[in-house]
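Hey, quick one: can you model this chain's 3D structure?
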Amino acid sequence: MHQQSSLEQALASNGLIAILRGLEPVHAQAIGDVLYQEGFRVIEVPLNSPQPFDSIRILRQSLPADCIVGAGTVMTAAQVEQVKAAGGELIVMPHCDPRVLDAAKAAGLYLAPGVGTATEAFSALEHGADMLKLFPAEAMPPAVVKALLAVLPKGTALVPVGGITAENLAAYAAAGAKGFGLGSGLFTPGLGAEGVRERARGYVHAWRALGQ
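Sure thing. Here's the predicted structure for all 212 residues.
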């Protein structure tokens, strides 16, 4: 019998993934606390943010263990090691570089590479991907999700990222998406914790309306 991983449990609890691009370490704990309170259980800090490893470390130390903390925009195997050293548990990539995929699995981290085609999706799964980031979702309507899931192994977690709104979330979910990556629609640098809370509530309301 398949035993759920911590990542699977987190996504089952709430399939919304917070992408905190541009987060500064000084704001990391406050933003993380608000997102956790509103129900988020997966949070990533893209590595093209200011001092991202400091923010990852702060989030991991301040949030409960049932919240998965990771890094986005991971481009090299060396960065994988830095994420692990900071306490990160999840590697999210915009692409599907086998060297980075293998480094993430060798480090014992969860892996979510970016895919846009069936070829990339199958390659990522062969390298041990735990979920697939469908990116950029603006260019791929729900019909693409449905078509990919028709040929991918049963149970594949396909997560659209890019342009996901509270309004279009339901259509992707109906096509089989298991989660959603939320970027600038949820967090932008300079937006205070209460502003993030307000946006988070809109997304969580839309997620719960799916009956998940």
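One thing worth noting: The mean pLDDT is 95.
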